[in-house]
Amino acid sequence: MGAGDQVLDSPTGWVAEHIHRYLETDGAEGHEWRPGVYTLLLTTRGRRSGALRRTALIYGRDGDAYVVVASQGGDPRHPAWYLNLRDDPQAQVQVGAERFTVRARTATAEEKPRLWAVMTGIWPAYDDYQAKTERDIPVVLLDRI
């Protein structure tokens, strides 16, 4: 991800506004989205277009790793950001004012129950999203590199 690459904000509507405020204020607005619910900005490279794509995601922590859920509200398809990370696990993250590079990996079957509990503790609706779809919703760890 080069310095000259243009980043396209993937979402529209209120999520796009959230990302805009997050960027404009260097995370002062938007990092804490709701009381106790924090978001990060994830920038991936499009697997087909090669364009940089940014989205906002609720996150948790597991040691030094950031944890996100590829729920897409229970949609039957994986979100584009997750598919992008499967093809190229290196991405950029902004947490508050801090920006850094990460390597993503999907939680193993052994790790997922513990991490799922962490994330549903932050955002209980993830259980509702899983109930809406036959897709096994992935949990993703983002490790700094």
From TrEMBL:
Catalyzed chemical reaction(s): oxidized coenzyme F420-(gamma-L-Glu)(n) + a quinol + H(+) = reduced coenzyme F420-(gamma-L-Glu)(n) + a quinone
UniProt name for this protein: Nitroreductase family deazaflavin-dependent oxidoreductase
Record GO terms (molecular function): coenzyme F420 binding; oxidoreductase activity
Membership in a protein family: Belongs to the F420H(2)-dependent quinone reductase family.
GO CC annotation: plasma membrane
InterPro entries: F420H2_quin_Rdtase (IPR004378), Split_barrel_FMN-bd (IPR012349)
